[in-house]
Amino acid sequence: MLTNWLKIALINYKKNGLSTFINLFGLTIGLTGFMLILMHWNDEESYEKWNPKKDQIYAFQSLYKRTNYYGDNISYPLATNALKIIPEVQDFVIFNGSDIGVKMTTKYTTTFQQGGFTSSESFLTFFPFKIISGHAKDALKSDASIIISRQAAMNLFGTINAVGESLKFDDKNYIVTAVYELPEGNSQIKPQFVFKPVEGFKHDKEQWNNFNYGCFFMLKKGASPATFENKFKDILTLRSSIDARGTGMTTEQFADLHGPNSVQLIPLDQLKLHAKASWFGAGDFRTIMILFSLSVLIVILSAINFINLKTAEASQRAKEVGVRKAIGGTKRSLMLQFFLETFIVCLLSYFLSLALTELLLPSFNKFFNKEIELKDWHIYVYSLAMVIVVTLLSGLIPAFYLSNFKAIETLKGNFSRSKHGVWLRNGILTLQLIISSFFIIGGLIVHSQVKYMMNKDLGFNGNQIMMINFNESTPKAWLKYERLKNEISKINGVEDISFGESVAGTGRRSSSNMDYEQQSINAENSAMDYNYLQFLDVKLLKGRWLNPHLASDTINTVIVNEAFVKKFGWTDEQIFQREIKPGFDEGKKYKVVGIVKDFNLRSLKYQVEPIMFFHYKQSSWKRFNVYNIQVKIKSDDIEGTVARLKKFWQTSEEPGYPFDYYFLNHKFAKTFEMYQKQQTLFTILNAMVLMVALLGLFALSSLMIEQKLKDVAIRKTLGASDRILVFGLTRQFLWIAVIAVLISIPICYFLMNEWLKDFAYRIDMPVWPFVVSFLVLLGLTFAVVSIKAYKATKVDLIKYLKYE
Question: Do you find a cis peptide bond into 260, omega within 30 degrees of 0?
């Protein structure tokens, strides 16, 4: 029996070669997209899975309810009090530096080592890397201890047996206490060396408001994160009561103004993709879910093609079913046969998609900057499960439909002239075109939003501005900047020089509360050189720039942006009359002397934040954080000037350090990369959907028009013109396309409006993508169907009318 089923299946595959090809092609494309996106999602979810203590470790995240802002920082006293007060806490680790690069000197070599990490002494308790030399216990207990990776040990000492060796950087000596092997699994925490920021810890030990650290808490086994979050509120209240003293505010008022108001623990293995804020960069789970949903839609679209084509082929198999039933065939055996035919096509598509996925994987990895391999058994299982689902979806309706034919009716030959199945086919085709319309509209809106962001006036000019980082740990960093400024200005091709703490396109930010009497806002603060805002071509709206000839401009004067004024709810005149007390410089009052037009330092996804600019000498500690020098280069010889700067840097300034630089406009452009990739992916998916849908439409229209050839012959004999015949054959499909677009419009409007809400700077929902979708889908439907319809008008009249 199985042999006969297979023979019948092969005969029907050959007889309906176009339909078979379209089903194979559509399912292969759909499953390939599904596998690639699933691998991307699975890779993002796999971070920190290697850690055996991941079920007990949680990242600390805070919420400032007044501004609905999620923070990833904690102060030293908050962390230590959590260990003392909350019994569920077993341990904590704090850190305030990652990917640090320093020039290390050993008795063997001097080399620049990247990938450093500063942490408290519990680091190896939380991240139990395999120790290949030394011991994990108390490895960071001493202030002079340092632990290094296998790679760092080989770079510095030429051997992994480096325990007890000494090295020096930043004018301090360290002893290697352990050498570890970095984990093979995906991890955001892969330091090449780890040491304690001793001076920072000493300074911040009692500073409740210095939120300088990231933090992980380890809870005791069985402890609930919700219990920790609830009990931590008492510690926040304690902090607010201490800081509210002398302000004239109650503890509650201070907490409401300054926050944080609550905390949330994020499981370690969910940090990469599910955290609202993360020290190591939060992932984009929503985009992955959108891409995954779209890939599933393409598979569903392919399944719809399968259903439509199988039901359309029904007339060709009606007599086969009638004969089978007449000689005793059961409905169950017929359904199993049709299921087998569907499963063979789906299984073949599965193997083809595996091969296509392997071929596309290198390009996919390059696109997402990953190193995914097709070796995870989950991918095979999930994709095979999808094949089974598609088999059920694609096989159940046609199998049920075909097995229900009445033997007498089909053997009489009346089936092809009946209306049986028309509503089913039309309904499924409508659903297919609704999905196609959604992709056309969505793709055009995504394109418009990305184009809007790319062309938006950022409020500053980063062209030809070269940002050069230098060694932050240099004592009296501001003096180094001033010396560099003087020397670099003499290099041919340099037009201007400045410094700014907050740099466009980077994540480096410093923020604090800004107070006036009983009012308080949270705002960024940025130290800078006198000319920095003019250097960036920022527009001054009111007041004046900082002036190097006025002593007050290195004491207590600041420039703010429009957002700063708006957040306080003041007029421009009011802010010039009031003095602000910033949290980063407690007890000192600052006077606003200028207001600049808002300009974007971050991605256009976010609103421009309130920010205060002031000279780096104005704050006793900000001047130590001068970490870059920015050089504006003349346009006539950019490459030559860069070469001269590099030579100066490597020979005179920072021997042994890499020449770490980038251009501001290029750096800010990288903030668009994610959205450009989304646009590219949406365009690819759009093309895939249209291709699958149009091929399915062509095959379906071919089968349905084939059934009407006798009607065409009769009407042509009675004098109908080719134009009337073509329109008559295509009219049904055009109406389906119109209905599909009209149904898709409200669905697409809602979904794309939700997507646009993610952007602070976004387009108004345009009308033209909906109009274009209507016209394109109508035009493509007519073009595809009319090809077959026109061929039908050339039918041989004698062939179809000789028996009438």
Answer: yes
